[in-house]
Write a structure and sequence with these properties.
alpha+beta; Hydrophobic Seed Protein; Hypothetical protein af1432; 9% strand; elongated
C-alpha cells in the first residue's frame, strides 16, 4: 500500500512533467525536518486550478475558488494548492479573494515560519523564503511578517500558535507572543466549531498541560471558556491540596495523564473542579475552606461549556457523569455491594478511575480507594457486574399488578439482593416477591401458584398508587 508521501511525490511529479512547479508544502516539511512522521502531505504548485483539473479531471473542486483542489493519487487524497497571495480578510476568517502568484509570495502569506517551508519532492531540497529552518533549529515559533497582521487576518491562528508551541515544545517568539496577548479577544470572531477543533487537538495531545497554561497566560480562555480563568487563585485547603490553587491542581493532573489519554478524559480533568470558585466557602469557626456541591454544580456548568463549543452528544454524555461522580470515590469503601457494583458498571467507569487516580496523585496522594476498587474489579471479574435480572416488569404484570412507579422500587430491591447474592435464582426471587409484596398483609392469594392468583385490592396498595387486575392472569 502506498504511503501519503509516495502519493504526494507522485502527484508533484505529474505536475512537473506537465511543465509546472510543484513542491511539498507546510507541516509535512516541518515534521520531516523534525524527524516526525507527517500524517498529511500537501502540494503547492504554479498550476492554476483549471490546469490541475486538466491533468486530474476527476479531482474534487471544493476549494477551487481559493486555489485548492483535492486530488486522489494512488488512492490517497492530496491537497493541491496554487501559489497565491491573499486579499483582505474582512471577516477575520478567510480572504475575500486570492491572486495566483509565486512560491516566494505564497510563503509570505502563511502563518508561522516553520510552516512556510517547501521541499522539492525529487531532490529533497528544502526551500526556505521565511527563515523557517533557523527557527526550527532554535525551536522557536515565529509569525511570518507582522504578528498582528497575521492574527488579524485569521484569529484562529491565535489558537494554532498555542497548539504548535505546545505540541512541538517550542518557545513563542516575543513579538509573536505579544501579538497573541493583544489580540486574544478577537478569537470570539471565530466560529465555536473551529475553536472546539483546535482545543480538542490540544487536549488529545501529550502536551496538553502546556497548552492549558498557554491558553491562560495568553488570555485566550477568556474568549470561549472564561470559567477556566476563575480557577486561578482559587485556594484550596492545604491539608488536602498542598499543590496550590485549583488551576495548579488541574494542570498537574493533565501532566499525569497517559500520553494517549482520550479527549473525554482530558476534558473531564479540565472541568471536574470547574464549580469550585462559585461554591467556595470558609467555615467561620474553623477557617476551613469548603466546596460543598461543586460536583453537582460542576456537571451543570460543564454541560453548558461543552454545548457552547458544540461538542458532540457522545462527548458530553461521557464527560458529564465523570464530573458529577468524581467525589463519590471517597465513599466507595462504605458502599454496600449492590451500590458498589452499580457504581462500577457505568460505561465511563474506567475513565473515572483514571480521573480519580490523577486527582489524588496531584494533591493528597491517597491511593486507598483506588486500590480498593482495583481489588474489587478483580473479585467481580468472574461474572457480569450487572447480570440479567431475575424478575422483570412483565413478571409483576403477570402477577396482576398494574404498571406504576412502585415497579422500579420492587425490581430495584430484588436486583439489590441479586447483586449481593442473597437471591441467586428466579425461583428464589419469585418466592421473595410473593412473600413480601403479595403476602397476606397486602393480598390473599387463592392458589399456590403465584402467577395464577386473583388479588384483592388492598388499601395499602391503593395508598402507594398500585392497581391490580382482578382477572385470573394467564
Amino acid at each position: 500500500m502506498s504511503t501519503p508521501r509516495e502519493a504526494a511525490c507522485a502527484l508533484a511529479l505529474r505536475l512537473k512533467q506537465a511543465g509546472h512547479t510543484a513542491v511539498l508544502a507546510g507541516g509535512c516539511v516541518r515534521d520531516a525536518i523534525l524527524g516526525k512522521h507527517p500524517k498529511d502531505f500537501d502540494v503547492a504548485t504554479s498550476a492554476t486550478p483549471t490546469q490541475v483539473l486538466e491533468i486530474f479531471p476527476k479531482a474534487n473542486q471544493v476549494g477551487a475558488h481559493f486555489g485548492v483542489i483535492i486530488v486522489k493519487m494512488l488512492g490517497i487524497p492530496i491537497e493541491v494548492a496554487t501559489f497565491r497571495t491573499d486579499g483582505s480578510y474582512l471577516d477575520g476568517r478567510r480572504p475575500e479573494n486570492v491572486q495566483f502568484s509565486t512560491p516566494e509570495l505564497d510563503a509570505q502569506r502563511r502563518d508561522f515560519t516553520v510552516n512556510g517551508l517547501f521541499q522539492d519532492p525529487e531532490t529533497d531540497e528544502i526551500i526556505d523564503y521565511v527563515g523557517g529552518c533557523s527557527d526550527l533549529a532554535a525551536r522557536v515559533l515565529r509569525a511570518i511578517g507582522d504578528p498582528q497582521q497575521r492574527f488579524s487576518e485569521d484569529a484562529l491562528r491565535l489558537m494554532r500558535a498555542v497548539r504548535f508551541a505546545a505540541t512541538l515544545d517550542f518557545a513563542i517568539e516575543e513579538n509573536t507572543w505579544n501579538g497573541i496577548r493583544q489580540l486574544a479577544s478577537t478569537l470570539s470572531r471565530i466560529s465555536v466549531e473551529r475553536i472546539r477543533d483546535e482545543l480538542s487537538r490540544m487536549l488529545a495531545h501529550p502536551s496538553r498541560a502546556k497548552a492549558f497554561s498557554l491558553l491562560a497566560d495568553s488570555g485566550l480562555w477568556h474568549a470561549f471558556w472564561p470559567e477556566v480563568m476563575t480557577l486561578i487563585g482559587c485556594e484550596q485547603p492545604p491539608e488536602w491540596h498542598p499543590e496550590g490553587d485549583v488551576f495548579t491542581h488541574t494542570r498537574i493532573m493533565l501532566t499525569m495523564l497517559p500520553p494517549d489519554a482520550p479527549l473525554e478524559l482530558a476534558l473531564s480533568v479540565v472541568l471536574h473542579d470547574i464549580a469550585k470558585p462559585p461554591t467556595r466557602t470558609i467555615d467561620a469557626d474553623t477557617g476551613r475552606i469548603r466546596f460543598n456541591g461543586h460536583d453537582e454544580l460542576g456537571a451543570v456548568m460543564a454541560e453548558d461549556m461543552l454545548r457552547r463549543l458544540k461538542f458532540s452528544n457522545d462527548i458530553i454524555h461521557a464527560v458529564i457523569p465523570m464530573v458529577a461522580r468524581h467525589m463519590q470515590f471517597m465513599n466507595v469503601q462504605k458502599m454496600r455491594i449492590a451500590k458498589l457494583k452499580r457504581f462500577m458498571s457505568t460505561p465511563t467507569f474506567p475513565l473515572e478511575m483514571e480521573l480519580h487516580r490523577v486527582d489524588c496523585a496531584s494533591s493528597n496522594g491517597f491511593t486507598d480507594n483506588y486500590e480498593f476498587l482495583t481489588a474489587k474489579a478483580t473479585d467481580f471479574a468472574n461474572e457480569p457486574l450487572i447480570p440479567p435480572p431475575l424478575l422483570t416488569g412483565r413478571d409483576l404484570i403477570k402477577a396482576g399488578l398494574t404498571p406504576s412507579s412502585l415497579f422500579s422500587e420492587i425490581l430495584e430491591e430484588i436486583q439489590t439482593l441479586q447483586l449481593e447474592s442473597t437471591l441467586t435464582t428466579r425461583e428464589q426471587a419469585l418466592a421473595y416477591f410473593q412473600n413480601k409484596w403479595l403476602s397476606a398483609q397486602w393480598a390473599e392469594p387463592v392458589s399456590s401458584n403465584p402467577w395464577s392468583t386473583t388479588i384483592r385490592l388492598r388499601t395499602k396498595f391503593c395508598e402507594r398508587g398500585v392497581g391490580f387486575s382482578t382477572r385470573d392472569p394467564k
